[in-house]
Fold this sequence. Notes:
alpha+beta; 8-stranded antiparallel beta sheet; single chain; 14 strands; 6-stranded antiparallel beta sheet; 18% helix
Amino acid sequence: MKKILSLTFILVLLAAFGYSKDYDWTYKWSQLPDMEQSGMDIEGTDPTILADDFLCENGLPITDLHWWGSYIGWMEDVDDPNPTGVMPQHPDAFKFSMHMDVRAGVDAPYSHPGQQIYGHIDNNYNVEYFGTVNHGGVFEHVFQYNYILPEAWMQEQGLVYWLDLSAIYDTGQPDYRWGWHTSKTQWNDSAVVNSAGTPVGWVPIADDPIKTDLAFEISTVPEPGAMFLFFLGAIGWFYKRIKNRSN
Length: 247
C-alpha cells in the first residue's frame, strides 16, 4: 500500500508541475481589440509614438507584452488575407517604454506619460493574424503581437503607468504604415500620441470629451507562494494518508 501511495504521490507532484506550467503567466491588465466597425488603427510608425495608461493592481512585475495593430491601407479591398498567403511588411523592431504618470491638471487638462523608467528597442517579437474589421466594405486586417521582456519591469501597486509603442523600419518608411488598434475598453484618460517635430508633445488621440484607448495586454508570472502552498498541501495530505494506513 505504501508503494501505491508513494507512486500516487509522485504522479500528483508531476501533475502539479504540469498544472503550474499552464499558469506560468497571468494578465495584469487587459484591453482587448475592438473588432467591430468602431475599431480602427491609429498610426504609430516611428517617429510617431503612441501611449496608453494602466493601473498596477497587484505589484507583480511585467514579463510579457501583447498588443494589436494593422497596416493602414494594406489589402483593404479583401475581406480575408489568409488565403492569399501574402503578409505585410512587419516592423523590423518595436520601441517599447514605460513611464510614470503625469496627472490631469499638472501641466495639461489630461494625463500623459512622464518620466521614462524602462525602455527597449527589440525585434524579438512574434506576430500572427488575428482577424478583420469590416468598415463598410473597406477592410482592416488586425494582427496580434507578443513580446517577452528580456528582464521584468518592476512596478508599485496602486500607481498608474503608461506603456508606449512605436514601430521601427530599418529601410525607411514602408508602403503601409503600422497602426496600433483601438480597444473597446476605455479606462481613465484617452490614449495619447507624440509626433516628432511638433512642439505640443503628448496629445490625446481623440478630441474631448470623446476618449479612446488602445488594445494591449500586460502579463506577469503568478506569485510563487501560491504554488508553494499547493505543494505543501499535497505533501501534508499524503503524509496523513500514510499515517492513517499505518495505524
